[in-house]
Design a protein that fits this description.
Elements: H1 2-5, E1 6-11, E2 16-17, H2 53-58, E3 67-74, E4 79-80, E5 89-95, E6 103-109, E7 130-134, E8 147-156, E9 162-173, E10 175-185, E11 192-201, E12 209-211, E13 216-223, E14 230-236, E15 242-247, E16 252-258, E17 267-268, E18 272-279
Parallel strand pairs: 4-9, 10-18
Antiparallel strand pairs: 1-6, 2-7, 3-5, 5-7, 6-8, 8-9, 10-11, 11-12, 11-15, 13-14, 13-16, 16-17, 16-18
């Protein structure tokens, strides 16, 4: 099961320095900063342009402690269909990382997000912050477990010190409403009967979509000439995913809204207009 719960554990060089906002990072591709020997300007009367005696005695300075400012996963709420897959992109803003493997990433199922171990500096966010972009080679699809996932980033400096931070996201399977129909009943009340079927990606994998039973579906109405949808009824799908509800007869349009769960995504049906042909009233 490990192959299903870990998408990638890869690293790469930073793609840009991060400014106040990692999304506005410049296109330059600087290499990681390598700590060097401290350099002091020559004292008055001194000759030569090399490091001062004090700098040579002090030796190399300590590597900068690693820090992670943010971990950002895109898309934020991935959804896989029966045949559709999802490619993740993860941006990590870090500093103090040394070498090509200075920042590594692991994407795993489950777990709560972990805050960065370093405090974000106030004011100017320059000072060595770099953007590391990861594109895990494996795409999320219907065969991966749904629910909460997290991307865990680790920054490491030349001395082996580390900092970790993570970002969580919900991976869900797709749903859909099919066959939505709104028609006037045969009674004198002039009520409208709205019917349809709620489907979800087949959890057993034997077909594309399968009826989704026991789920609450909200029927919404939009009066003609307006743009506001209002809740009109709440129904529950049966073992075949079928649902039915009633509303007042009025000029306008109907739709069905499923609000989703942590494992299955929300969906909105195509718009249904009231059919002119009446149907037999049912209890």
């Amino acid at each position: 099961m490990a192959a299903l719960t870990v998408l990638a554990e890869t690293s790469l060089s930073p793609v840009a320095h991060a400014g106040d906002d990692a999304r506005s990072a410049r296109a330059a591709v600087p290499g990681p900063r390598v700590p060097g020997t401290a350099h002091t300007p020559p004292a008055p009367g001194a000759t030569g342009s090399g490091p001062s005696f004090a700098a040579l005695v002090a030796g190399p300075r300590e590597p900068e402690p690693p820090a992670i400012r943010s971990v950002r996963v895109r898309p934020r709420a991935p959804v896989a269909g029966a045949r559709q897959t999802v490619r993740l992109v993860v941006d990590v803003v870090a500093r103090g990382a040394a070498g090509r493997d200075g920042v590594t990433l692991k994407v795993e199922h489950g777990g709560a997000p972990r805050r960065a171990e370093a405090v974000t500096p106030e004011g100017d966010a320059g000072g060595g912050w770099e953007l590391w972009r990861f594109t895990p080679p494996i795409r999320l699809n219907r065969w991966y477990p749904s629910g909460r996932w997290r991307a865990v980033a680790t920054a490491r400096n030349a001395e082996g010190a580390t900092a970790r931070a993570s970002s969580s996201f919900l991976f869900r399977k797709a749903t859909r409403v099919t066959g939505l129909r709104a028609a006037r009943t045969g009674g004198r009340s002039g009520a409208v009967r709205i019917t349809g079927t709620l489907m979800r990606v087949d959890p057993r994998g034997r077909s594309g979509y399968w009826p989704y039973r026991g789920q609450a579906v909200t029927l919404q109405f939009r009066r003609h000439g307006t743009s506001t949808w209002r809740d009109a009824a709440r129904v529950v799908s049966d073992r075949n995913g079928y649902f039915a509800g009633r509303g007042k007869a009025a000029r306008g349009a109907w739709r069905a809204v499923y609000r989703g769960t942590p494992h299955y995504a929300a969906t909105v049906s195509p718009i249904g207009h009231v059919a002119t042909k009446r149907i037999k009233a049912t209890k």
